[in-house]
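Two proteins follow. First one:
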Amino acid sequence: MKVTEHLEKANDTLFSYEILPPLKGASIQSIYENLDPLMEFNPPFIDVTYHREEYIYNKKENGLLERKSVRKRPGTVGICAAIMNKYTVDTVPHIICGGFNQEETENALIDLDFLGIDNLLVLRGDPINSETYFTAEDGGHKYASELIHQVDGLNKGIYLDDGLTNSSKTNFCMGVAGYPEKHFEAPNLNSDIHFLKKKIEAGADYIVTQMFFDNEKYYDFVKICRANNINVPIIPGIKPFSTKRQLNILPQRFHLNLPPELVEEVLKCKNNIDIRQVGIDWAIKQTQELIEFGAPCVHFYTMGKVDNVLKVMANFK
């Protein structure tokens, strides 16, 4: 079932989760161990992130450096298929521009279609570690809106080989990312909304926001989207705060602001056990307020750890 169909049929706010593929060499059992307790809450769908290649440099005997491409977290498509088979729940693989040309993208979409996966989260993706700015592959897409156009084309039976006859149509439901505090590359929020609207016009069906810790940011984001005739469902994404180190990491990595009240509470804590409880309490309050606001779904970023999310979810059985 499509994400939008889940949202349309629900009478109450839904809860969904995003998980990371395990590090290369780990068993998929680690995924099952995380998901088993979460399945008690009947998630309508589960997102699985995609991690593109990174480059490492090995020093050779002659002193020169050899560049090697590695993927530390492979397996997105296989994990999606395994989750669907084990739990009979819909999955949403992330599909990105980075690292793919259009032919490779089309082939990946065909594989997903054959597996019965009909939901995607379509993203541009971040620059790799050796890049200052995102660089598209030769023959690839530079923007998420271009990738959405390609998926939308397949949904209409339009393939790269225009000589195909009687080509079958795919039936993908597409989500895209939204940034309540604007994408870090955008000059301002209005500009960011302008390009978000282009993604919706290109065929995207719903929006999932970047994590935030101040619900007012989400409320304002929904308001400005509606004022700009962006009328698709907007799913808020949140994450329970858990360590003191995240005071620096989260704003730096995800380009978000932390509310002064949350920072003050974290700084009062003597250890990460206390901070973890502060984060759980904060996420419970966020979730309750989002439900009261009428959010169609609350999406939890687990980041490979579900204990905190389980503590939050226990309050909404």
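Second one, unrelated to the first:
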Amino acid sequence: MSDFILLRPWWLAALPMLLAIVLWNWWRGPTAGGWERVMSPAMLAAMRTLGHLRGAAGRPGLAPLAAAGLISLGLCGPAVPRADAPLLAGSGAILIAIDMSPSVTESGAMADAQAAAAGVLSAANGRPVGLLLYSGEAYEVAAPTADPATLESQIAVLGPDIMPSVGSRPAAALALARQMLVASRDADLVLISDGGGFDDAARAEAERLVGSGVRLSVLGVGEGTGALSALGSSFAPARSPGPVLQRLSSRGSPKPDPVLPALEFRDLGPFVAALAAIPLLSLFRRRL
């Protein structure tokens, strides 16, 4: 039942009010159209026995309140995921920047970086994905492409002998990423790094990148990556990239589309609201 959601949960506010009305009716007791205020209980009982006060012996108003409760539950929009829900692609590009400095490539952090990059490809959800590598300099490997699967083989062969230079200059990678994403709306940069080389120049480039409208997410590999958490708008360890991947897999537009829940979930609200006909039908029964 973890997939069960309410599309319009604010309608739950009607249920406490309906419950208050039910309790008030119960406390007030059965009515007889106002006759209970001028007739003794014995006379009221006799009149009911003779059939002159038909239907007055019960608690009034329960059927309409039950119907109102079912309609409120239906308006809450109980829903379950649709098995035939379409896969919605975001519009903005995703660029992966991988730290290829010796501190990453010559340690077990390289495998974590490759796994994290593969996770980003899986979370792209149809969005174009590009790749750049950096050490002492930054190099564009692939411009954002609508077929991220082409990058899988390139990521799989990454190793210590790939880069022509040594060192770690994330500032160069951030500057190149800003150039590659300058024409892309709603873009994301995912920086995979062990935190080496982050100086004032790198922080300044990160501010320019974010100022240009690109969202910066960071996946930390190895030890001592805590300082990276303040760099981007989203940070996670490469071995637990869930928060970053979840953000990437969501659609690019910051404005929610009210039509999307209808595509992703099956709204059971109309079926629940239709059950209100059962207590309402009791109001139309023929009384003898």
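SUMMARY FIELD: The longest strand covers residues 138-145. Residues 94-249 form a domain with the Rossmann fold fold (CATH 3.40.50.410).
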